[in-house]
Amino acid sequence: MKHQTLVDKNLEYVWHPFTQMGVYRQHDPIIIEKGKGSYLYDTKGRRYLDGYASLWVNVHGHNNKRLNKAIEKQLKSISHSTLLGSSNIPSILLAEKLVEITPASLRKVFYSDTGSAAVEIAIKMAYQYWKNIDPVKYRKKNKFVTLKNGYHGDTIGSVSVGGIETFHQIFNDLIFENIQVACPSFYHSQYLTEEALRDAVLSQIEHVLRTRADEIVGVVMEPLVQGATGLFVHPEGFLKGVEQLCRKYNVLMIVDEVATGFGRTGALFACEHENVEPDIMCLGKAITGGYLPLAATLTSQRIYEAFLSDQHGLKTFFHGHTYTGNQVVCALALENIQMIEENKLIRHIQKTSKVLDKQLRQLATHPHVGNVRGRGLMYAVELVADADKKMPLAIATVERIISECKRRGLMIRNLENIVTFVPVLSMSKREIKKMTSIFENVLLDVLE
Ligand code: PMP
User: Fold this and answer.
1) Are 81 and 89 in contact (CB under 8 A)?
2) 279 belongs to an annotated ligand binding site
3) Reported CATH class of domain 31-60+344-447
4) What distance in angstroms lies between residue 288's CA and the mean position of ligand 1's atoms?
5) 285-317 CB burial, b ≥16 within 10 A, e <16
6) Are 265 and 273 in contact (CB under 8 A)?
7) How far is the CA of 407 from the centre of ligand 1 (A)?
8) How far is the CA of 226 from the centre of ligand 1 (A)?
9) Mutate to test the pocket of ligand 1, among 111, 151, 183, 375 (most ligand atoms within 8 A of CB)
10) How high is the mean pLDDT of the chain?
């Protein structure tokens, strides 16, 4: 089909996510037709380096033969049968693998299909856990401790534990109340050292837990890096500190590794950096190598056992989706994890991360670069109008930079004035350098 016909039909029929369609309509859209390795190709035949890993999901590159084969092989047996009342082979094998590779505290796997659903399940499970063990003693527990600037998805529950003001303004009447503490982002804080910031936010959390533990179900957080709202990197020891507080005050620790999981921060899971063993972990995005939707909520044995009973209606977790544990996605995820292991991908990411870090930090002296931060292959460059006052660069200018990057063959995204670099995880050092040099040239040209 011709590009222009697709453009017309796109505007006629598709409502795009997180998009002001009134603005979108004014521009010629990019329509992706195919992918290969670290590149995307559009209907005009243009090629783009995938610097956002197709929304932080792609692991081994596009159109990977082995992943394609894993899908085809499963299709030849069966595509889908329900996990309600029966089980299936790939979902069993994948659950075993996920338990093997995640922190030792996690023993059971509950499947779903989006990161939002994985978090929704986590908060419902955590809430019901307390009701199941003692509904009288824990009757008041109905709140979560959350971090400002947290992002956990778009369903009402996951928005409720998120920390994005716009969402909270629009949906205020629908969302439930939680207790929000500061986001430990050093660049945006008034503290002189990262340690001082870490200790201040930890003592804020401790104060909340000490005074309101009877109301608190658990702490919900993105570990190490708060991604979708601006890639805020936590100070060293913060994650461990939260774990210790959860243990001290007997509340559940729920980590949302939807974005950080499967190597993104330079370890298979962000929790590994600080040897943290959460009660619940949410996974999604890269779990299938970025090919098909799958998510999972992993829990400890203690939580699982609190839901056991001899009677069906008693203590049961009443939650499940039609495609829970779908065979094709589970078989694909298993192959993805095997490839991560066989290709020693984590070691590769640790090496390419050094290149990305070095290249981006060279930009730090630019007058409009306020801050460069990140872990693994998850980096941000915060653009400012005034570096001393940390005043954000005008959004229109940032958008010009992003669209010029696209014009020169680099697909990246901005979160307001923060430009993010979250490339395909298997990207080579050469491709990483290409990505940063396109950005650098655009920055110099647009901001001249
Ligand atoms: N949690 C985190 C940390 C995320 O980054 C995201 C997606 N950006 C989600 C949850 C929601 O995932 P999904 O978009 O698949 O619902």
Assistant:
1) no
2) no
3) alpha beta
4) 14
5) bbbbbbbbbbbbbbbbeebeebbeeeeeeebeb
6) yes
7) 28
8) 11
9) 151
10) 97
What's the pLDDT tens digit per position in 344-366?
Answer: 999 999 999 999 999 999 999 99
Q: Which of 31, 35, 46, 39 is nearest to 1 (CA)?
A: 31
One-letter amino acid for residue 69 of the chain: K
Q: Indicate the top mutation candidate among 58, 111, 116, 297 to test ligand 1's pocket, ranked by most ligand atoms within 8 A of CB.
A: 116
- The DSSP line for 158-225 is HHHT---HHHHHHTTTTSPP-EEE----GGGSS-SSHHHHHHHHHHHHHHHHHHHGGGEEEEEE-SSE
153 in ligand 1 pocket by Cβ < 6 Å? yes
Tell me whether residue 285 is annotated as binding: yes
Rounded distance between C-alpha atoms, residue 407 and residue 323, angstroms: 38
The confidence band for 168, taking pLDDT boundaries of 50, 70 and 90, is confident
Query: What is the C-alpha separation between 184 and 64, in angstroms, rounded?
Result: 38
Q: Where do the domains of the chain lie?
A: 31-60+344-447, 69-342
pLDDT, position 313:
85
Q: Write down how long the chain is.
A: 448
* CATH fold for domain 69-342: Aspartate Aminotransferase; domain 2 (3.40.640)
Closest alpha carbon to 158 in 172, 142, 140, 176:
176
Going from the Cα of 193 to the center of ligand 1, the distance in angstroms, rounded, reads: 30
**d(Cα 247, Cα 270) in Å, to the nearest integer?**
19
Which one-letter amino acid corresponds to residue 101?
A: I
pTM of the model: 0.97
Atom of ligand 1 nearest to the CA of 284: 15
256 in a labelled binding site: yes
DSSP 393: P
Q: Please say whether the beta carbons of 229 and 164 come within 8 A.
A: yes
What's the rounded mean pLDDT across residues 181-188? Answer: 96
